[in-house]
Specification:
alpha+beta; Porin; Immunoglobulin-like; 4 domains; eight-stranded antiparallel β-barrel; 18 helices; 25 strands; elongated
Length: about 725
């Protein structure tokens, strides 16, 4: 019965649809980056065979069995593969089970348009609409011969496609068909439900097949020059090499991502470039970056041949693709570099080395007996470090295989710099090794360093922190210091570590070289250079270092301190003698006191008072000398005498500053005499006059409560000098 056939068809369609959805769910897999499946699995042409059963909605005159065999052809549009023109050739058989005269065949052809949407690799849904014409042939209706009836066909329906492979599609095709005869034989006109089953073969190349892997990129000019472990941080921001990519396709490539990988020495490939589009035939030069991990610092023995991998991902016609290219280069260990950029030397200057930290602590302790408490600490630490290296017998030895004169002049030559700890253990090195060691020891103590390169040589310089205008604090000869970045720097010819040359000799030689190569020298601050070339990592291990004799270090240092004090004081003394100005004698006395030359300081302040007996500045400072000698009672009397002479100075006058300094120094003297109550009272008095001045002198101003902070009570174990321009 027609109704039963229709019900069976609908039920079968529903079952097949549910099965198809189940298979689709199994075949679908989540991806990190969704792709357009319609484009990815696009095919140029397909052809198939179909068996179709037909059930009329209205009853025919008799019971008929209707089926057709069809050949179908599809041609997806290139730019929009979902849209598919369709052509069908069909043979239909209408069998009358009761009266064979009405049995007939329908030969027809149809054209139409379909739309197919792919939801996974193995599942798609679509709809079609077609119109065509045919000839119904009745072989037995007329005894005189076959009778024909021209007929029009109109079809609309859907299809559920299961795609077990790229080239094969199995379809279930429910739909509607309408027949309209152009002759009086209209018995079979009307609307029918159709259910077809088809198998299609799709031409083209399976994009998932191994032979279909996209190779749209040609690699050209892959260049990675020798790389250096010491430049690890530099390569993360600057190219290690470059590669040129060429699009060999006739269509553009999109979403290009290029990265570089070195197995074992990177935690992940390093992204180097992203490009939205590469036109057909176009080339693209890509600078390669490399983020190496700490394994590069474990390389030893000069260099190791490496095979890196350039990785490129992109899309061609919506399909994602990847290609890789091997590139060979040499990776040198952490002691190697080339001198194409002198700033690279800063990569070997390190503060994070326990061996250097321990040695620096030993140096500091050894020099304590001779340290001048009031004089420039940076210069003293520099002298002390030089003397400590001198004491252990550190000496200069030129590299016999790669002298600096040769490697510096040829940036293609690979040079090797010993790590500071190794130079310290060997106790010898060439100019670059000694410079790196010296700067590392000072940077470990928080002292700013730099280095100077001249033809065939490199040597360290140290930032004393002294303002350029105050050069006489370091040397009366202005040309003996380098005014760089508004502060004074001291050069040290570190190769004079021969056991005979003191620090002053190394200082003078550094200045001579600075002047000699005025047109060919270059100066680099360590901190600036390390912003580009970060220090290499050092494996923390016991070096078994011998630090030398502390007494010997102190002896060398005492000699240099005395020489420095003599040079500086001689300069100030000459100035004062020439000017006979009380201010110059006051300056001489202040410097002498800070250098611990208390007799010289007393003489200088006394000379200032001979010029002006009421010179309060000299009176305060002379009282300071008594304090430094430990004669606190005399200091108290002298400070009180100054305060009496000051009286109540006018607010805002220079005398107010002298008053506050005198009050603070007097408070410190009472603190030394164990009279904390009097000391606190004086600090409160000074705070009421100028709390900021009190704070600048290293004391905590007393607040409105009148209570002095316990942490600051009795802090003053030294005194503050009154200095004038």
């Amino acid at each position: 019965m027609p109704g039963k056939n229709l019900g069976r068809g609908l039920l079968l369609s529903a079952v097949l649809l549910l099965c198809a959805e189940g298979l689709a769910a199994q075949s679908a897999s989540p991806t990190n980056e969704p792709i357009n499946l319609n484009t990815y699995y696009r095919f140029p042409f397909s052809m198939g065979l179909e068996y179709e059963n037909q059930t009329p909605f209205g009853p025919f005159a008799k019971d008929f069995n209707i089926f057709s065999v069809r050949a179908s052809f599809r041609l997806p549009l290139r730019g929009l593969p979902q849209l598919q023109p369709v052509a069908i050739l069909s043979y239909g058989q209408f069998n009358d089970n009761a009266d064979a005269r009405w049995t007939h065949q329908l030969y027809a052809g149809s054209l139409g348009l379909g739309w197919a949407e792919r939801f996974s690799r193995n599942f798609e849904l679509g709809v079609d609409a077609l119109a065509g014409a045919g000839e119904a042939v009745y072989p037995q209706l007329d005894t005189s011969g076959p009778r024909g009836s021209p007929t029009l066909l109109f079809e609309a329906g859907g299809h559920i496609s299961l795609d077990p492979s790229y080239g094969v599609s199995v379809d279930v095709r429910p739909g509607l068909a309408y027949l309209m005869s152009l002759t009086p034989l209209t018995d079979f006109d009307g609307l029918s439900f159709t259910l077809g089953f088809s198998v299609h073969y799709r031409f083209g190349e399976d994009p998932d097949a191994p032979q279909a892997v996209i190779r749209s990129i040609r690699f050209e000019k892959a260049e990675i020059p020798p790389a250096f472990s010491s430049m690890q941080s530099y390569y993360s921001r600057n190219p290690i090499g470059k590669v040129t990519l060429v699009n060999t396709e006739t269509q553009a490539l999109t979403d290009l991502e290029v990265s570089f990988n070195q197995k074992g020495y990177m935690d992940a490939p390093t992204p180097s470039m992203s490009a939205g589009r590469l036109e057909p035939g176009a080339s693209l030069e890509v600078p390669l970056k490399a983020v190496f991990n700490s394994e590069v610092f474990k390389l030893t023995g000069g260099f190791k041949p490496m095979t890196g991998e350039v990785l490129v991902s992109y899309k061609r016609g919506g399909k994602a693709a990847e290609q890789s290219f091997a590139v060979n280069y040499d990776l040198y260990d952490k002691t190697a570099m080339t001198w194409d950029d002198d700033r690279k030397a800063a990569a070997f200057i390190t503060t994070l080395d326990s061996a250097l930290q321990n040695y620096a602590a030993f140096i500091s302790e050894a020099g304590k007996p001779a340290v001048l408490p009031g004089y420039n600490k940076t210069l003293q630490t520099t002298m002390l470090t030089y003397d400590a290296l001198r004491e252990i017998g550190m000496f200069y030895q030129e590299d016999p295989t790669a002298p600096f004169t040769r490697v510096q002049s040829d940036p293609t030559l690979v040079d090797f710099i010993s790590m500071p700890r190794l130079t310290l253990k060997r106790r010898y090195g060439d100019c670059k090794n000694l410079t790196v060691l010296f700067c590392s020891l000072l940077e470990t103590r928080g002292i700013k360093t730099g280095f100077v390169t001249v033809p065939g040589h490199i040597y360290p310089v140290v930032d004393t922190g002294v303002a350029a205008a105050d050069y006489r604090e370091l040397n009366p000869d202005r040309t003996m210091t380098l005014a760089l970045n508004d502060t004074l720097w001291v050069p040290v010819e570190i190769t004079m570590l021969d056991g005979r040359s003191d620090f002053q000799a190394a200082w003078r030689r550094g200045i001579e070289e600075w002047k000699q190569y005025e047109a060919k020298r270059a100066f680099y601050r360590t901190s600036d250079a390390q912003a580009i070339y970060s220090p290499v990592a050092v494996e923390d291990q016991d070096m078994g270092l011998q630090y030398g004799d502390a007494t010997g270090v102190a002896s060398y240092f005492q000699h240099d301190v005395d020489a420095q004090a003599g040079t500086v004081l001689a300069g100030y003394a000459a100035t004062a003698a020439a000017s006979q100005d009380k201010k110059d004698y006051n300056k001489l006395g202040t410097i002498a006191a800070k250098m611990g030359r208390l007799t010289d300081a007393t003489d200088a302040f006394s000379r200032a008072l001979k010029i002006d007996g009421k010179y309060l500045t000299a009176l305060v400072n002379l009282a300071n000398v008594a304090f430094m000698k430990g004669d606190y009672s005399k200091a108290v009397d002298s400070y009180q005498g100054v305060l009496s002479m000051l009286g109540n100075p006018e607010k805002g006058s220079p005398a107010v500053g002298v008053q506050v300094i005198t009050l603070v120094n007097l408070a410190r003297a009472y603190s030394a005499l164990k009279n904390s109550q009097k000391s606190d009272s004086l600090i409160a008095q000074a705070s009421a006059i100028d709390p900021e001045k009190v704070k600048s002198l290293g004391e905590t101003p007393v607040g409105a409560s009148g209570t002095r902070a316990a942490s600051s009570a009795g802090v003053g174990s030294s005194v503050s000098f009154v200095e004038e321009p």
